[in-house]
Amino acid sequence: MKLNPFVKAGIGLSFALLWSCPTLAALTEAKNFGLEVKATAQSEDDRDLGTQKGGDVNGIGLDLRPWIYGESGAWSAYAMGQAVVSSDIIETDTLQQSADDTTEQSSNDDRKAKKNYLALREFWVGYSGFTPYPGEILKFGRQRLRNDDGQWRDTNIEALNWTFDTTLLKANVGAAERFSEYRTDLKELSPVDKDRQHFYADAAYQWTPGQWIGLRGHHTHDDGKLDYAEPGVASDQLDKRENGDLTWLGIEANSDAYNWRNTNTVNYWASITGMRGDRDKVNALNADGTRPTSAKRSDDLSGWATDIGVRLRLDPQWQVGAAYSRASAEYEQNGLQSNRSNWTGTQSRVHRFGEAFRGEMNNMQSMSLFGSWQLREDYDASLVYHKFWRVDGNKPVGSNGIDAVQNNTDDVTGAILSSTSLPLEDGKKDLGQEMDLVVTKYFKKGLLPAALSQSIDEPSALVRLRAGVFKPGDAYGSQVDSYMHRAFVDVVWKF
Q1: Average pLDDT for the chain
Q2: Average pLDDT for residues 83-106, to the nearest whole number?
Q3: How far apart are the first and last CA of the chain?
């Protein structure tokens, strides 16, 4: 199997980082290593809402994740690999984005996911000697960045990140840029990620027991070279068609609501974020195939978003709650989000905008009602109902879960000549509704080094069902299928 240069460099850097402390013997004074084995069965029907052939996934996959961790004094180092074999293109990783499979025709296979692949998930070196606090660490390398609500950061990316985590104050400062996916099948980055730098900072203060208030900021700088339209030259889905700078500033308050161990009778979270910036976009060729008058256009962007929720504990095991989110038409997230968190009050992280629909905070509002159950640390379950609308009925929305297309066909033969994303119906705001069910059985616990709290997805062995059924609304028109579903059964074991 031929590895691309970034994967080779990552393998070399992984070993270099692990041996970068004074001596190997010193590093291995305290060491940890292990293997996480994950088997995933996936059933998915009508991601394209019946607008094209295929769109279904039925198969199983095996995901092996060996990891090694060492520390000596204030220094630490960590690396995790990954080997996936499957019968179909299975999402064994909740950080995978369905949107990677675009609807445009392309002869470029450099970003087509394959059934089997090798990957490097993380490789970093850390130093925690700047302060005497145990929750402080500076990490350099490819690492898991995550914040509590998953709406700002939850991804593996190359970064320099400083974390300060104490009883009264939590803070993060860092810079990140994606240089490679470090997978043998994905040889190129998404056009959005090419030459895009992220700078971020956040701080939260516990002003009274169990009550937090915080500020968050994020800036993206993208000056990557644009691929302008050329007459007679076919466009490609990997062409970079836009760049620019965007800045997000937000304020949040919560009752430690994302900590599933808290026993508050009432939990809440609330956040509001403003976004401002500018963007250049490549203009398409004229209808007759000639160059446009201007190769690109520039736009000033501004938007805002809010997410609020409340959760009531009925007894030690049962909770019920409601949540509301709204994002203006021009608002968009920064690209590092997963939108997964413990917002239902259980140990399982649930997608905030539907396990099937997987909405994004972009021209969308949603209302969610849920009930959850947690039995000690052995079982948990969440049942969630979502309703989704567009804010502006004449503009598109972001979603990682729906891939509906509009086909251009030959008038004589009926053959499909090309496919583009299905435009939503003008003036129609109803995106649809969804029911989700997430149920987990945990088997055993194990103590992991504190520095790995962000890296290891699950702290114990488990069996989990994640399922969502989405019913499209009027905005998708009358020609699409009535339902789509996405369901996973994960079995995780640790050695």
Answers
A1: 86
A2: 72
A3: 27
E strand map for 314-355: 318-327, 340-341, 350-351
Strands (E), 296-359: 296-313, 318-327, 340-341, 350-351
Q: What is the pLDDT of residue 230?
A: 82
DSSP state letter for 450: G
Residue type, position 487, single letter? A
Among 255-264, 283-292, 385-394, 465-474, which is the least confidently predicted range?
A: 283-292
Structurally, the chain folds into a number of domains equal to: 1
Q: What is the pLDDT of residue 454?
A: 60
As a whole number of angstroms, the distance between CA 369 and CA 179 comes to 39
The Cα–Cα gap between 450 and 452 comes to 5
- Measured CA to CA in angstroms, residue 268 lies from 339, 354, 359, 360, 383 at distances of 17, 20, 22, 21, 18
Q: What are the structure tokens assigned to 287, written together?
A: 């209808």
Collapse the DSSP code of 451 into the 3-class scheme (helix H, G, I; strand E, B; otherwise coil) and give the result.
helix
CA 476 to chain centre: 24
pLDDT of 18 > 50? The answer is no
d(CA 335, CA 271): 18
Q: Which domain holds residue 270?
A: 5-494
| CATH number for the domain that contains residue 49 | 2.40.160.100
Tell me the average pLDDT across 465-481: 90
Element (H, E) at 17: helix 5-18
Greatest Cα pair distance, the chain, in angstroms, is 75
Q: Is the pLDDT of residue 26 over 50?
A: no
Residue type, 469: V
A 10 A CB-CB count for 221 gives 17
CA–CA separation, 92 vs 74, rounded Å?
A: 34
pLDDT of the residue at 55: 67
In the 8-state DSSP scheme, what is residue 458?
Answer: -
With residue 12 as reference, give the H or E element that holds it: helix 5-18
* Contact (CB, 8 A) for 311 and 341: no
